[in-house]
Design goal:
The protein is 34% helix and 22% strand. By secondary structure, the protein is an alpha+beta fold. It starts with a helix and ends in a 13-residue tail after the last strand. Pfam families: AIRS, AIRS_C. InterPro entries: HypE, PurM-like_C_dom, PurM-like_C_sf, PurM-like_N, PurM-like_N_sf.
């Protein structure tokens, strides 16, 4: 064989081998997160490909850039649709708790923030801060639950980021999200829509999430089978909007139902009158709150929202929520003119008490 041809053949083989090696997927060899996984090299690529892409890969993530590029026509139409955008961070401790985990919580929380604004959630961005030493088995469970929650809500995890911090400078994993949704042109929700005589609806029992997380921490000598209410509520919201004359909505997360109601009262200048006997709280959850001396009204929820609807559509609104799966939905109060900018609770004995904004944080790192 001509030495020149042999040289060319050898060079071709070498190049082919190089191409084959370069095209191999990166391998995740470790059992735990290391600082190298946040350094931007092969370990980082292996983390992204073998954990995140493997769990919720899609066409947008496959673009491989620092931003997901989406056609605007796919999100909005030419008839006045508006864009809603939300961002949030999740630092819950523990990261896994009865009824959910930090990943599922992050997706549901973002979807719900968009939904109660009247938006149809579309895209979510997810950023992880991982602590060195986090087990990949745990991380895989979290991202798998995120994919499941996203699929259930009908949203796409479009882009994201990952950073690693040294052991002892974080707490296993923190997650930050941003979400984008589309508000159809006919929807007008907001404080300014609320009117005297409107009814206030809650989609289900309150305080389950906060108490489930508290029980899971194991710091208290209390055991109770309480599970978080974490779920996406966009299906419930759509059922409600299609049936009732909805004025305003809010998911009652940090600060609980009391904080959401105070925010509305302050923004509208009207009175929010709640019926204590009509606010749903599960017996187990109420018992745990009583033992700890905590008012369920101030405990965080992650799959429960409040809505203000016109008085004449309240019954239909509750029926629609029941049909959509929110069995505990009910009318829990009404909007009045006086006392202005206040929340009043009517007790079971017929008396009243003021419900103020939360002071301090009796249940830190609930979400």
């Amino acid at each position: 064989m001509d030495p020149k041809n042999r040289l060319n053949e050898d060079e071709t083989k070498v190049n082919s081998n190089i191409e084959r090696v370069r095209s191999r997927p990166f391998r995740l060899l470790e059992d735990r997160v290391t600082l190298a996984h946040g350094a931007g090299g092969k370990s980082s690529a292996a983390l992204v490909e073998q954990v995140f892409f493997d769990a919720y890969g899609n066409d947008l993530l496959a673009q491989g850039g620092d931003s997901a590029v989406v056609s605007a026509a796919e999100l909005i139409d030419a008839h006045g649709s508006k864009i809603a955008m939300s961002t949030d961070s999740y630092v819950v401790n523990p990261i896994e708790f009865p009824g959910g985990n930090i990943g599922e919580l992050a997706i549901n929380g973002t979807v719900n923030d968009l939904s109660v604004a009247g938006a149809i959630p579309k895209l979510i961005s997810v950023a992880f801060i991982l602590e060195e030493g986090l087990e990949f088995e745990t991380l895989r469970r979290i991202v798998a639950s995120m994919r499941e929650a996203a699929d259930k809500a009908g949203v796409t995890i479009a882009t994201g980021d990952t950073k690693v911090v040294p052991k002892g400078t974080g707490d296993k994993v923190y997650i930050t999200t941003a979400g984008i949704g589309v508000i159809p042109p006919e929807r007008e929700l907001g404080f300014e829509q609320v009117q005297q005589g409107d009814k206030i609806i809650v989609s289900g029992p309150i305080a389950d999430h906060g108490m489930a997380v508290m029980m899971a921490r194991g710091d208290l000598a209390i055991e109770a089978p309480i599970e978080s209410d974490t779920r996406s509520v966009n299906d419930l919201v759509e059922a409600l909007i299609k049936t009732a004359d909805v004025r305003w909505m809010r998911d009652a997360t940090r600060g609980g139902l009391a904080t959401s109601m105070n925010e509305m009262a302050r923004a509208t200048g009207k009175a929010v009158v709640l019926e204590d006997s009509k606010i749903p709280v599960r017996d187990m959850t109420r018992g745990a709150c009583d033992i700890l001396g905590i008012d369920p009204l101030y405990v965080a929820n992650e799959g429960t929202f409040a809505a203000v609807v016109s008085a004449d559509s309240a019954d239909a609104a509750v029926a629609a929520l029941h049909a959509a799966g929110a069995e505990g939905a009910c009318v829990m109060g009404r909007v009045e003119d006086e006392p202005a900018a206040s929340v009043v609770l009517v007790t079971g004995f017929g008396g009243t008490r003021m419900v103020d904004m939360l002071v301090g944080d009796p249940l830190p790192r609930i979400c």
